[in-house]
Write a structure and sequence with these properties.
alpha/beta, 7-stranded mixed β-sheet, 7 helices, binds S-adenosyl-L-homocysteine, binds magnesium ion
Length: 205
């Protein structure tokens, strides 16, 4: 269990503990603890000016990134209206409106319209669409920038011999995305088998 002891401000720490607990109770698939700590570490090292997140849900990971890296400006995208509403309200409660911009809509439509250059892109939305989120967002990442993707092993099914029927198409697409990362001429990628699997790709400088 995450204790958030790294948050020095008592009020913010207790707000974060509640947000985390509530998200778990509501079965929102928030970033798991070990993967979150790896991302924290990258933020501490990279000190990114700009972050793009695909898949905000209720804002947990965006708020976490904002607290870890107070000088980063974060754009985050969420297409589910109810979740986007909750994320917006959480961002307000944490007084992070100046640091996090929530874009409500489908990332497949919104990313191609974006013009900013990002230091880090965090992809954590529909797993069958990772290839498309990636193709759109890689153009927006500066040389030397980083792409992190969550759920790359999807409950172990990416490496399993037998995949339940309902997941087959999605897993097939996720596997193809592994190949895309592996073979990409501009990226150096590692996949960590922690939590649900996260990939870290660095774009050549
Ligand atoms: N990053 C969040 C968890 C995201 S869960 C956290 O760790 O706190 C994945 C979210 O992606 C869901 O809320 C889902 O609605 C959203 N999503 C899925 N496909 C999307 C798309 N095409 N565009 C925008 N959001 C999408
Ligand atoms: Mg995830």
């Amino acid at each position: 269990m995450e204790d958030f002891l790294w948050i020095k401000n008592d009020e913010k720490r207790s707000m974060m503990q509640s947000l985390y607990k509530q998200a778990k109770e509501d079965r929102v698939p928030i970033l798991l603890d070990e993967a979150a700590k790896v991302i924290d570490s990258w933020l501490l090292l990279l000190k990114p000016d700009r972050i793009l997140e695909v898949g905000a849900a209720v804002g947990y990971s965006a708020i976490r990134m904002a607290l870890v890296s107070p000088n980063s400006k974060i754009d985050t995208i969420e297409k589910d209206p109810e979740r986007a509403r909750e994320a917006r309200s959480n961002i307000q409660q944490f007084e992070l409106v100046g640091q996090i911009v929530l874009h409500e809509g489908d990332a497949l439509e919104l990313i191609p319209e974006m013009t900013e250059e990002y230091d880090l892109v965090f992809i954590d939305a529909a797993k069958g669409q990772y290839g498309r989120f990636f193709e759109d967002s890689i153009k927006r990442i500066r040389p030397g920038g980083v792409v992190i993707c969550d759920n790359m092993l999807f409950h172990g099914f990416v490496e399993a011999e037998e995949v339940p029927k309902r997941y087959r198409t999605m897993i097939k697409k996720l596997k193809a995305f592994h190949e895309t990362l592996r073979n990409h001429p501009d990226l150096e990628t590692r996949i960590l088998s922690i939590d649900d699997g996260i990939s870290i790709s660095v774009k050549r400088g």
